[in-house]
Write a structure and sequence with these properties.
alpha+beta, globular, Ubiquitin-like (UB roll), 5-stranded mixed sheet
Amino acid sequence: MTNNKVEFIDYLMENEVKFVKLTFCDFLGRQRNISVLTSQLEDAFENGVLIDSAALTGVGGTDLKLKPVGSLLSVLPWRPHSGRVVSVFCNIFNADDTPYVCDPMVLLDTQVKKLGALGLKAQVATECEFYVFKEEHAEELVLFDEADYCACAPYDKCENLRRDVIISLEDMGLKPISSHHERGMGQNEIDFESADPSSAARNFIMFKTAVKNVCALNGTIASFMPRPVSGMPGSGLHLLITLSGKNADKATGAFAEGVMRRYREITCFANATRNSYRRLKPNFEVSYDDKRGKSLRIFGNNIVQLRTPDATCNIFTVLSLVFAAGREGIENGYKLRPPCVGDNDGFPSIDAAFDFAAKSDWLRANIPGVYDDVLDSMKRRYIAEQALKTDREVFDFLADI
């Protein structure tokens, strides 16, 4: 799709699009949007649509504007064909029309450009796990099937759901490459092909939307919680980062070492709920090798796989921090440590992760201006989540992730 305003609006008219969802992602990883009539799009392009900064950081006080990026349009195939609805990602601006430097999309683009200044390019692929439940209102959550890893129908009752999700994703212009049943009952995984970092992040946000809507239409509930049910395997978001360009072979090791050295500070953002830490400990360490229990794996062809994040994160923010840490490793010539050698006794607890983040000047430099507001918003969610007693209460509390 073009970002030319006239061509963009002509497309909407020709395809009988009635509503446009102006879409962005807040710092807690939740998709947010404002719906406008297609007839209002020209004004949205020119003047933007006002939002309160609370929609982004959780703390109000500043007027911001959403302006659509026409090239980031997705048709929502589960909505009616008559009076169709589309989603378009937006850049965020200050009220005076200057770019908002804390826009997560801008944070990521800035880091990608800084990596490019070193003669390097990055591609990102995602592998995401999620659970499907029967749509019931009892206190106990009921998993959709009892199948296990790579099971086949009829034991794998999620097969048709995954098919419908993939067809929807293709209709939206996204490019999934594979899907399968995961280890947990009712647990699934869908993987995407590599894309530039901004496209990969946007595709992931739209993927979560597609999964939830397709499941809702089929009378089920999808959850991206890291561990929605006690005793079942956790669900992660694996990020595969491929480097290419100037001295990429050498740069990959330094990049990976840079990420590991900063990962304590990044953890709070990559694992953004208390529920996240039910998945991580004690199975992860801040080290790497070829085993799945480690936080980071390195493959041939200059691929770094980060295994600790989960779908509660703002993927734009996390990728921006990962690229900032990796670039720091490259610029400082960090030497990759031997495999399996961590620099601590294991993965930080949620309290330790929050403490690392609160004390980090490096994070403040990479999330300028709003860092303390974002951290305060995250802390308030941690405290509210801590007061919950049952799996069902936590499930309902985190339903919008």
